[in-house]
Predict the structure.
Amino acid sequence: MAYDFAHGSGTESDPYQIWNQTDLEGIGQDNSEGQPNYFGNHFKQMADLALVDYDCDSLVLVGCTYDGDNHKVTGLEDFFFYQFLGEGTLKNLVFVSPEISKSDMGLDGTGIISFVGSFSGDVEIDNVVVLGATIFGELYVGGFVGQASDASFSDCYVLGTRVSGQQYVGVLVGFA
């Protein structure tokens, strides 16, 4: 199914605007011209999001920028993004009481974001806060990111969070 954003053009100066869960889910789809929304675009969250039955098992962002504009995300029970790859930026976002559980030994990792990485430059994560999360997994379990490679983190905090797993477990990142 094609998804065209109602506001913005996806450029740095005019990012696609995320007003609700439908817009957020639209990131993982192609637009009506058959081009992926999740490749090389810019997004800005315009309101707090209260997610209901949000399913993100395959959402991969490549070379994208996501600016949460200091808004909150509540109701998260699955990965916010499955993978965040390429020279991209995630910034200015607050996650409140996410509950994420994964019970397999896959190499993807378990966290609000399963995997963050790049082989052509750093992914930048800036000013992201996780409050009161419960994260359970087996391998590569983090309170924010399960697994990170070639990523830089600044001004990120995980507070009041319970994280548990079998191997490679961390409060911010499970394995880096």
Remarks:
- Residues 21-26 form the longest helix (6 residues).
